[in-house]
Amino acid sequence: MVWNFFSLSRERVSELPIYDDGRVRIEVSGAKYGVATIWDKEILIYLASLVQDKLNRGEEVSPRLVFTAHDICRVTGSVVGGSAYRRIAEGLRRLQGTQIITNIETGGAGEDQAFSWIMRYKIHYRLGRNKEKIMEALEVELCPWVYRSILKDRRMLTYDQSYFELPPLEKRLYEIARAHCGKQAGFKMNLEKLRRRVGTTMELRFFKKELVKISKRRLPLPGYGLSLVDSRVANSIDANPRPALKRPPLKSLLVYFYSTDRLSKIPPVSAVPLIEDDLCVEDAA
Fold this sequence. Notes:
4-stranded antiparallel beta sheet, 7 helices, alpha+beta
């Protein structure tokens, strides 16, 4: 949730901008069909949930998963049919063809990694009345990096069901809010740092404009709200976030996230931590 590994566009993208903050480095490149998208990530979330569900029930787990097209459509809110089947097949192709090189470790592996999201996949079809292929069972094997993160790190967080209905920018904002809020009331992050974490290529001023639009909605994100504040007034003792001063420089803006599920009152900006390093505050889900 913290880092972005996926394209936020439906257009074919051959590689993502390299993320390197001095501690964490992520390189993502795609094969013939481009890098995996934020919509393809829904498949990965579904697969991870299957493993986590078995762990929760005390059952034996494996990186090899078998499931039905109908079930993944049910979970992601897709209408079962030809277009959904096509998107699943194309998503699996991109997930298998995307290569990630990163120094982020999972399961205490103690090594830099180069991997694809899934090792292999197989799709089973049956023929319909008009000889069209109807997707039935699917077999997918998760890569060791992903599998270790579920099995050993045990820090997988649940996703709100409405996540699957969000636009790409809101998906990333929700993930970042979900990962960093944890058991805290909220947090704040520099605007440019957030832009890089989201993974968008839009200019900072346009990114700010989109955040302002989202913040003004009655329900900005599932379970979370956000507001832009000027760092020069962020330490106010007021119980509510202050708006930014008139036309503050972009570099002075902070994005303040807060939980709306647990709170009857928004905490003051000064009471929540500033995310300055790249350690994620998480709670087990």
